[in-house]
Design brief:
The complex is a heterodimer of chains A (about 260) and B (about 290).
Chain A (H helix, E strand, L loop, with lengths): L6 H25 L17 H7 L2 H34 L5 H9 L6 H14 L6 H24 L4 H9 L4 H30 L4 H4 L7 H9 L5 H33 L1
Helix pairs in contact in A: 1-11, 2-11, 3-6, 3-8, 6-8, 7-8, 8-11
Chain B lengths: L7 H27 L3 E2 L5 E2 L5 H8 L2 H33 L5 H13 L2 H12 L4 H8 L13 H25 L3 H9 L4 H29 L3 H6 L7 H11 L3 H25 L3 H6 L2
Antiparallel strand pairs in B: 1-2
Classes of the chains: A mainly alpha (about 260), B mainly alpha (about 290).
């Protein structure tokens, strides 16, 4: 490596940015084990007390179930409608392609608060009450552009020639899809679903507009708890969320690499 | 094979297009339409076409000052993200460390952690009994906790925590596309490392820098969580006002008018950006 005088400064600076970024996150996890009544420093021992308390809190357990169900439905729906669209962009040339791509990615650039208001207003005009369906619809709209981006990036790598070879060697279109296209597509489907799930599981800005007392998600629940004060229970809940949403992509990445190695052997 | 008049791509696109049209384009049009309606004293909405809601917004200095504060805070966030983000992005571009993939994953990790947790985590750091006050008290540097929460600085910490990864990734994507032999050529022709950076690398990284700035600006304008959790009464931004009008006082027409103003402002900025620089750079980094 070419060492120039500033390089060590650059390294130190980068390290400081990491420290800045991760100190608050580490603090949440650490403090969740603090048995003290107020979730603050100094640490006075180590206990699972707040986790036990969480596990007995029915409202939070319901919110967790809601978040899991909502995230799963959202990831299936967003991927199901996102993958065909991504294929259209990668495989075909058609008029207005650029404009349509921009239109489908537009939700990223629309402020989430406006998205929240817009869907709620539409519902009000239709004279429908807030429901779980609203959350599903909203989350599909929120996650679709990200699914599209991730899946499109993966699809570019899949060459059309494989399918054409299978077809020309006598495979039926269904066989081709089952034996060639789907296995090649699977990592893209998986990545899209995972991305949609985490966005849905974590979203709070728009979800606060759509949630009701009966349809709470975990972030909405945390928001409600914050109204009182920051309790160690919030830190414990935060730590659970961090471990869950961080380990999911890491495990998924590991599994898919394992699969890739397996199929090469 | 892929002829231009084929119906196939349209069939593949139709689910996404109808979803975005029905659930995004039409609802956003509704916001604009509602912004001209009247609010009945009973709380109902009366269809109308009048500029009263906008007149109310600009009637005194209170509401416009929120808009101005939003723009100011968003610009501050952009500048701080740039200052904090360029060096790490450059580090990723130049490093040959075998830990580079791990370091890159670490910078992506905050994307996977809930926004509300990242925001509230600053209370543990900046609060009266937070980490900084605890350390300062223990070291004997201060005798009573020193108040750092509920001001604009705390709000900026929350916003930076949320947006810095977006900036770093945008800059990195742009830097990563630069052929390293260009800087080598510059140095072998007698440039110093610093000159080569200033004359070659920096200008070539500007598309990523500007894409990052736009994304950070737009996302800051659309969020209300950091001011709500980390800010005081004087730190509300325009999104907080929308939240309060819609969820708090249920004033739909006025809330819609504010949303329309925000949408219009960002629309003009994004349109101008796209006109001169092209919006697609932004989407590259999110892959």
């Amino acid at each position: 490596m070419k060492l120039f005088s500033g390089w060590s400064l650059i390294r130190a600076y980068t390290l400081l940015v990491y420290v800045w970024m991760f100190t608050p996150i580490v603090a949440v996890v650490l403090l969740s084990f603090n048995p003290q009544q107020f979730g603050s420093f100094p640490m006075e021992g180590f206990s699972f007390k707040w986790y036990v308390k969480l596990a007995h809190n029915a409202t939070i357990l319901t919110a967790f179930k809601n978040s899991l169900v909502l995230g799963s439905i959202t990831s299936v729906l967003a991927t199901a409608i996102g993958i065909p669209a991504a294929m259209a962009f990668v495989r075909y040339e058609f008029r207005g392609k650029e404009a349509i791509n921009t239109l489908l990615l537009a939700p990223i650039m629309i402020p989430e608060v406006v998205l929240g208001v817009a869907l709620l207003l539409f519902l009000r005009w239709l004279q429908q009450p807030k429901s779980f369906l609203l959350l599903v619809i909203g989350h599909v709209v929120l996650t679709l552009p990200y699914v599209l981006l991730v899946v499109q990036a993966r699809l570019v790598g899949i060459r059309k020639e494989y399918e054409e070879a299978a077809l020309s060697l006598g495979a039926s279109p269904f066989q081709t899809f089952r034996e060639i296209t789907f296995p090649l597509l699977a990592p893209a489907v998986f990545a899209g679903m995972l991305f949609a799930f985490t966005i849905s599981f974590d979203d709070v800005t728009a979800t606060l507009f759509w949630a009701t007392a009966r349809n709470q998600t975990v972030p909405v629940q945390i928001f409600g708890m914050l109204r009182n004060s920051i309790s160690p229970e919030i830190n414990a809940l935060g730590a659970v969320m961090i471990v869950l949403t961080v380990s999911l992509p890491l495990v998924a990445g590991y599994v898919s690499r394992r699969f890739a190695r397996g199929s090469q052997a | 094979m892929t002829n231009g008049k084929s119906w196939k791509p349209w069939a593949l696109l139709s689910p996404s297009l109808s979803a975005v049209f029905l659930l995004l384009v039409i609802p956003v049009c509704f916001v604009v339409v509602y912004s001209f309606w009247l609010r009945a004293p009973s709380g109902g909405d009366i269809p109308a076409f009048q500029w009263g809601n906008y007149a109310k917004f600009f009637a005194d200095f209170f509401y416009p000052s929120l808009l101005i504060r939003t723009i100011r805070v968003a610009l501050e966030t952009v500048v701080l993200c740039l200052v904090m983000g360029y060096v790490p992005a450059y580090f990723f571009y130049r490093t040959e460390s075998r830990f580079k993939p791990v370091l890159m994953i670490l910078i992506m990790l905050p994307f996977w952690i809930s926004f509300i947790i990242r925001t509230l985590s600053w209370i543990n750091i900046l609060g009266d009994s937070g980490l900084i006050n605890h350390l300062l008290l223990k070291a004997g540097l201060i005798s009573s906790p020193f108040s750092m929460l509920y001001n604009e600085g705390a709000v900026l910490m929350g916003l930076l925590q949320y947006l810095l990864p977006f900036m770093i990734l945008n800059i990195y994507v742009s830097l990563d596309g630069i052929d390293k032999s260009l800087t080598e050529a510059a140095t072998s022709l007698g440039c110093t490392e610093w000159q080569a950076f200033r004359e070659v690398t920096l200008p070539l990284s500007l598309p990523g820098v500007s894409a990052g700035c736009l994304l950070v600006f737009v996302l800051t304008c659309g969020t209300y969580l950091p001011p709500m959790i980390l800010g005081g009464p004087g730190n509300d931004m325009i999104a907080n006002l929308i939240f309060k009008r819609i969820i708090g006082t249920l004033d739909w027409p006025f809330g819609s008018a504010i949303s329309t103003l925000l949408l219009g402002l960002l629309g003009v900025i994004v349109y101008t950006y796209n006109r001169y620089l092209g919006i697609n750079q932004i989407f590259k980094s999110l892959r």
